[in-house]
Amino acid sequence: MTLQVPPSSRHSFRFGLPPSLGNETARERADRLAAFLQRALGKLVEVSVASSYETLAKDLLSGRADAAWAPPFVCARMEAMGVRVVVRGVRRGMSSYRSALVCRAGAGLTLDRLKGTTAAWVDRDSVAGYLLPTAYLKAQGVEPARAFFAQHFTSSYRGALEAVLDGKADVASVFCPPASTGLTYTTGVEDVLGAGAGRRFELIAYTDEAPNDGVPVAMGLAPQLVTALESTLLGLPSSAEGVALLKDIFNAERFEPAPRMGYRALYRVALASL
Q1: Which Pfam families does this entry report, sorted A to Z (predicted)?
Q2: Residue 30 CB neighbours (<10 A)
Q3: Parallel, antiparallel, or unpaired for β 171-176 and 96-104?
Q4: Which has the closest alpha carbon to 31: 11, 43, 18, 49?
Q5: In this structure, are residues 99 and 136 in contact, taking their beta carbons and an 8 Å threshold?
Q6: Which has the closest alpha carbon to 263: 137, 65, 45, 81?
Q7: Which of 127, 176, 154, 150 has its CA nearest to residue 51?
Q8: Fewer CB within 10 A of the terminal residue: the chain, N end or C end?
Q9: Which residues does residue 152 pair with via DSSP β-bridges, in sequence order?
Q10: Integer CA distances (angstroms), 112 to 102, 116, 117, 122, 132, in order
């Protein structure tokens, strides 16, 4: 991937969103985020939904995006190339999360009974939707390439979970807090599919933790815009509109400043998943 410093003369501000919660949902809410950021930054704002995590990273590195709401491994890749992550999400008071491996309720799958099943993942760069669960399986002596009959990528958590419910896959994974103890409101199952959806799944296992998603900014972005964006995102809880954006777009209760190079440990996870 070639690093190109974005031009600073563009009049608009471009913010990228990942496809992980579903393209339609993200596009419906992108206009709300654009209007909010436009008022806060005093610039024309364009919010777009990337077709994949790789595209999201390329948009930021090439200058097609000035900032993005990015999953942890994309943040790790950005940091390795000198890109700063300004804030990261906080969910239920925590700045880290893990992944829950799940199957349909009643399937009774365990780590020892995955042979010949089909997995539905989110994206190869998705931490909770692929990297954490595959690294965990390998650590438990389960080689995904040999255990699963097939592995599919759906681009979103909704797509992966619905593939399990529809019988197109047996196993999927979803983000959840470190303190999760079940599949009800404490996991991403109900964040993605709605209240009560947790009862339609069974837990297979929980993985190790990773830092939450963050907002990296393009290297060529003017310092005053970086500061304004950081202040705007940190201040979202101070208004009803901001609280709604946090819930509907970022699935977070607030942002906090991201520690420098706070995502580098994810390379160990990525290597373990290969």
Answers
A1: Phosphonate-bd
A2: 19
A3: antiparallel
A4: 49
A5: yes
A6: 81
A7: 154
A8: C
A9: 120
A10: 14, 11, 11, 23, 18
CA dist 229 → 45, 243, 256 (Å): 12, 16, 13
Please name the residues in contact with 11: beta carbons below 8 A apart, sequence gap of 6 or more: 43, 44
Cβ atoms 79, 109 nearer than 8 A: no
Closest CA to 23 of 1, 59, 45, 55: 55
Q: Give the Cα separation of 228 and 47 in Å (integer).
A: 17
The residue to which tokens 């199957």 are assigned: 103
CA dihedral 222, 227, 233, 236 (to 10 degrees): -130
Q: Are 68 and 216 in contact (CB under 8 A)?
A: yes
Rounded CA separation 64/51 (Å):
14
Structure tokens, 243: 């609280």
What pTM was estimated for this model as a whole? Answer: 0.73
Interval 134-162: pLDDT, tens: 989 999 999 999 999 999 999 999 999 99
DSSP 7: P
Identify which of 266, 138, 137, 156 has the alpha carbon closest to the alpha carbon of residue 213: 266
Name the strand (E) or helix (H) holding 147: helix 144-147
Radius of gyration of the chain (CA): 18
Residue 209 CB neighbours (<10 A): 17
